[in-house]
Amino acid sequence: MKSIQKKNILHCYVKNHIRYLMSCLLLFTLMLSHSTYASSISKTNITDNGSKQQVSTKQTQLEKIIPQLRVKNFKKKIASIKQLAEIDDPQTIVILEALLNSKLYYQKSDKKVVIINKKNNQYETFSTLNNNAIAIVQKKTLKKITTNNKLRKTIRALLAKKKILNSNLDVRQNALKEILTANDASLLPVLEQAQRQETDKSQQDLLKLAIALIEVHSNNSETRQSAVKRLGNSLYPVAKGKLTKILETDEHGQYIEQDKAVIALAEKAMQRISSKLSLFGNLETLFFGLSLGSVLLLAAIGLSITFGVMGVINMAHGELIMLGAYTTYLVQQLMPNDIGLSLIVAIPAAFIVSGLFGVAIERGVIRHLYGRPLETLLATFGISLLLQQMVRTLISAQNVPVITPSWLSGSLVLNPAFALTYNRIYIFFFALFVFAMLMLILKKTSLGLQVRAVAQNRGMATAMGIKTQWVDSLTFGLGSGVAGVAGVALSQLTNVGPNLGQAYIIDSFMVVVFGGVENLWGTLVAAMTLGITNKFLEPWAGAVMAKIIVLISLIIFIQKRPNGLFPQKGRASGGH
Amino acid sequence: MLLNYLFPHFMHEDTGGKWLISLLIAITLLVVMFNFFIPESSALHIPTYMVTLLGKYLCLALLAIALDLVWGYCGILSLGHGAFFALGGYAMGMYLMRQIGDRGVYGNAELPDFMVFLNWHELPWYWQGFEYFSFTALMIILVPGLLAYVFGWMTFRSRVTGVYLSIMTQALTYALLLAFFRNEMGLGGNNGLTDFKDILGFSLQADGTRIILFTLSALALISGYIASRFIVQSKLGKTVVAIRDAELRTRFIGYKVEDYKLWIFVFSAMLAGIAGALYVPQVGIINPGEFSPLNSIELAIWVAIGGRGTLFGAVIGALLVNYAKTYFTGALPEFWLFALGTLFIVSTLYLPQGIVGLFSQFTNKQQKQSAKHGALQEETT
Questions:
Q1: Contact A556 B300 (CB under 8 A)
Q2: Among the listed ranges A26-30, A65-69, A165-169, which one has the minimum average pLDDT value?
Q3: Strand partners for A415
Q4: Do B166 and A384 touch (CB under 8 A)?
Q5: Which positions in chain B touch A554 (Cβ < 8 Å)?
Q6: Angle formed at CA B105 by CA B102 and CA B106, multiple of 5 degrees
Q7: Residue B38, pLDDT above cutoff 50
Q8: Boundaries of every domain in chain A
Q9: How many whole angstroms separate alpha carbon B282 and alpha carbon B274?
Q10: Measured between alpha carbons, how far is A175 from B292 in angstroms, rounded to an integer?
Q11: Which residue among A198, A344, B53, B334 is the one 20 to 30 A from B105 at the CA level?
């Protein structure tokens, strides 16, 4: 009988581990697919620039035209600049910009045209063909290629055109962002041409906006009206700024703008923008709320096992989270060349480290204190102090740097007013995933069955042959391990230091008590509710005040419903 | 026993208390004499900073009594007693701030420095009245008492007990910590209240004032002890112990459990407030750090180490742990948290009755042995 029992428990233990490993694999493949996608994008950028043969013909064209820039006659100079601009080579942009910024010179000795860079009263020269540094020379050996207003204007127009119609998306985007506020009517034909050619969606939106921004200043009333209407469709801050400018009033409260129709349309457009902005603002707050909720869930879910199911107050729970975060740091130290992979390795590692610490705490201290909750609270608090000081002594009293892998950084830009950071998205789903895994373990495995049996009626469970002490240790280890996994996630959001855990302990307890003890679903709902409430209070109450309000409301709520949102019903609740 | 003539009747059984109070009086007298009459060159001279340090310990011991009253006798482990202590301290701090007058850095007679710095133009309403010492003295008791009343009224009425209550008190002090950190609160924000000059016209830097403050702390501790002992020995105290041991039964017998709990909780908060008010002029600063949950939990360990439900045990625990803290944070700063953490674990695992329990176990054994001995003798005769 005994051996069967042992086998059974072992079996389910192994099964749990297999599940865990499989889930890690799943997560891993997900992340891999993301990173390969990113690298494929960068490859396409490189291949954009055409074949080598073309490059060499362009080179000879450049070599032919560049010396012509030295001519004194400005008319001729403009003609050669226009010729230069027609060559499809990124180098022309460099040359034109150098000319615009008075950095294009020629050497008096051999008349060679060079780009210069001033450096401590000396001039460093660069090749016009490939930007390679040539030499550092004295000022007097060079002669500047002069420009005048008309020439500079031509160059600006040419440059804008070249950039806006460039084959490289990055160049196009940057150029457009630059000229968005320039309000240069001469660019209108170029922009319209670009709009016809453009295939990228966000770039097209930007082009539309740029055209509308120019057409707002047109002399034709109808053109202006349609431009104002189009401005109302854009979420870029520039559009809103322009509309605000149109709606400006003088000191008597009269509109400066004379055209009544334009004013009416501008007001409508403004309303549309404001309502959209507030919608996306609310969505963003909701996202931040869910993100905070997922952090709370991660921090509290391990506690809802140890406190909720076992009834053990573990004040060292925060420190088990901290250990998880430090495990991430140590794993990254061990594999500095695979930061992307390190996080995946850290998840099981943190589970094991914190889980082992948890089992040790249960075996060493908590076991002797069952039935004395207040003493358990104090003893585990002592453990939390020991763990903090241990980390301070063994590693460092300062915060340690945990690197964010590339697949977690950056953000998902949905529109100019709404962007979601990847790390928060991942952590949200990770929290749900951990929750689902725990739910599975508790509901579908024999360990879970035994855990629930012991939680409901220890005596009866013992009579049925369950080794309650063994189950206690495993349950505590499980809760602690989950705390460690939470630490891995938190290491991506906050500073990792010895005090990391203390920040979360009160919040986690509040989440568990609010959700109702011995109820994982309650913990989920409570964490999300608290997270979202907190973030929606923040804009008008301030971050600290929001937290205080939430804490006080929680204290009052628990007076009304001492058993939380979802109290345990029936015989199993008989504890109090 | 001769000592009995010196103590009120309800203390006649309280041997530990009698010893403690006699010792406290003796030490106070000795310290004052050694500070005053022995020249500084002598090795026996007690420097003033040491007197202030001792005064600090005495205030903390009073705080420990306050917690022992609710935890040891009523079973309410409040992990937010530091909040009442800090509130009393802030009330005193506000009085001391108003006493600075125009001697601050900005020389504003009406506003404390930090308000001038924040560009405030008038004193907030809750600062009114703190220029009077009598009003301040009232507030030192009333503010912590009121908070305890409101919190206790809500909590005890809805029958939140045990660990839940501990976590809620912890949340309470945490919420206050966050609130007092805000500059908008008008209480000095992060830096708190400091740079005090004088109290009731006596300079806080003067040796005489410091010695008087020390003596006052000792007096407060002794009277706090006697008052607590009186309550514990009274019918109220007996009922409270009954609630600790069997809350449901006491309720079914017909006692209004929540009322008893509430009054003992409020009294305890007031004691904590007084302790805080005496603490602040001696350390010269009060800041939101006093609200930190860690402080309140540490307080629980003083009581646990000394021995719960004895009152004098709390005093012993507070003095011992705080002395150890001063020593270790000076000599071996790395070691202190290890020591404190171990203290928590050892005291809960191996010393459920604290040092006092260890001692009484020892004397009980002796008594039993002598009783056995006596019985044997009786049998033989």
A1: no
A2: A26-30
A3: A418
A4: no
A5: 171
A6: 70
A7: yes
A8: 57-150, 167-258, 283-573
A9: 13
A10: 53
A11: B53
Over the stretch A16-32, which tens digit does the pLDDT of each residue have? 555 554 554 455 444 44
Query: Using the beta-carbon criterion (under 8 Å), do A548 and B297 form an inter-chain contact?
Result: no
Residue B196 to residues A490, B88, B330, Cα–Cα distance (Å):
42, 16, 26
Q: Rounded to whole angstroms, how far apart are CA atoms B237 and B122?
A: 47
For residue B58 the two structure tokens come to: 């005495």
What residue in B sits closest to A388 (Cα-Cα)?
B337
With cut-offs at 50, 70 and 90, classify the pLDDT of residue A432.
Answer: very high
Residue A105: strand pairing partners: A114, A144
The domain segmentation of chain B, as residue ranges, is 2-350
CB atoms near residue B291 (< 10 Å)? 26
Predicted confidence at residue A310, as pLDDT, reads 78
Q: Do A513 and B178 touch (CB under 8 A)?
A: no
Chain A residues with beta carbon closer than 8 angstroms to that of B244: none
For residue A539, the surrounding DSSP H or E stretch is helix A520-541
At A103, phi and psi to the nearest 5? -120, 10
Contact in structure between A342 and A405 (CB atoms under 8 Å): yes
| Phi then psi dihedrals of residue B124, to 5 deg | -60, 155
Helix ranges restricted to H, A125-236: 149-164, 169-179, 188-197, 201-215, 221-231
> Count of residues for chain B?
381
Q: How far is CA A452 from the centre of its chain?
A: 39
Single-letter code of the amino acid located at A531: G
Which residues share a beta bridge with B198? B203
pLDDT in tens, B245-284: 999 999 999 999 999 999 999 999 999 999 999 999 999 9
Q: What tokens does A347 get?
A: 């998840």
Which of B172, B293, B301 faces A378 most closely, judged by CB atoms?
B301
Residue type, A505: I
User: The domain A283-573: what is its CATH number?
Assistant: 1.10.3470
Report DSSP letters for A92-106, one per residue: HHHHHHHHHTT-EEE
Q: Please judge whether A374 and B182 are an interchain contact, meaning their C-beta atoms are less than 8 angstroms apart.
A: no
**What element of type H or E holds A117?**
strand A113-119
What's CA B250's distance to the chain center, in Å?
A: 29
A369 → chain B, closest CA residue: B349
Using CA of residue B348, residue B353, residue B359, residue B362, what is the dihedral sign? negative
Two tokens, residue B139: 């507030």
Residue B332: φ, ψ to 5°: -135, 75
What value, to the nearest 5°, has the Cα angle with vertex A76 and ends A73 and A80?
135
**Cα R_g (chain B), whole angstroms:** 22
ipTM entry: 0.85
Q: Looking at beta carbons, which residues of chain B come within 8 Å of A304? A: none
Contacts of A379 in chain B (CB under 8 A): 344-345, 348-349
Range name among A122-131, A294-303, B71-80 with the lowest pLDDT average? A122-131
Find which of A385, A508, A514, A563 to mutate to test the B interface (most B CBs within 10 Å of its CB).
A385
Q: How far apart are CA A128 and CA A137, in angstroms?
A: 16
CA distance A499 to A496: 8
CA distance A223 to A241: 19
Report phi then psi at A113, rounded to 5. -80, 135
| Residues A317, A479: Cα–Cα separation, whole Å | 9
Q: Say how far apart CA A493 and CA A291 lie, in whole Å.
A: 10
Residues A559, A454: Cα–Cα separation, whole Å = 29
Half-sphere exposure of residue A228: CA atoms within 13 angstroms, side-chain side = 27
Q: How far apart are the first and last CA of chain B?
A: 30
In chain A, what residues touch B170 (CB-CB under 8 Å)?
506, 509
> What amino acid occupies position A150?
K
3-state secondary structure of B202: strand
In this structure, which amino acid lies at residue A108?
K
Query: What is the pLDDT, as a whole number, of residue B376?
Result: 59
